[in-house]
Amino acid sequence: MNDKHTPGPWKASEGDTNIPDCEGAWGDVKEDGDHYAIATIWADTDELEVEAKANARLIAAAPDLLAACRAALSQMCNTVAPSTSFTDVVDMLDAAISKATESK
Questions:
Q1: Statement: residue 8 has pLDDT above 80
Q2: Contact, 68 vs 78, CB < 8 A?
């Protein structure tokens, strides 16, 4: 694939933003090990913090979700590489969904 986005994995990090002294910045989503933000997540009230965390998890899971969707589509079309079994695809989907929805 010739993807133009920042390659994964991505990681959500609370309180670690590239915007100094800024009220309401909850944290960033970054390429794992990088210091440049892919996205800055905002939550300027305590009520929005739960939503901000969920948004950050979903954004951080995007590369995993894309890979899992591609594998699932390939499996459904019977064009998957021999090294990727149906069970592997199910595991990829499950892991990507978990990353998008569960707090770590």
A1: yes
A2: no
| Distance, CA of 91 to CA of 18 (rounded, Å) | 34
Q: How confident is the model at residue 24 (pLDDT cuts 50, 70, 90)?
A: low
Neighbours of 6 (CB within 10 A): 14
pLDDT digits (tens, 9 = 90+) for 29-50: 888 777 778 888 887 777 788 8
CA distance 4 to 49: 30
How crowded is residue 20: how many other Cβ atoms within 10 Å of its Cβ? Answer: 6
Residue 2 within any structural domain of the chain: no
Q: Which of 44, 2, 47, 39 is nearest to 23 (CA)?
A: 44
Domain that holds residue 21: 7-60
pTM of the model: 0.71
- For the chain, where are the alpha helices, taking DSSP H only? 46-60, 62-76, 86-101
Q: Are residues 11 and 55 in the same domain?
A: yes
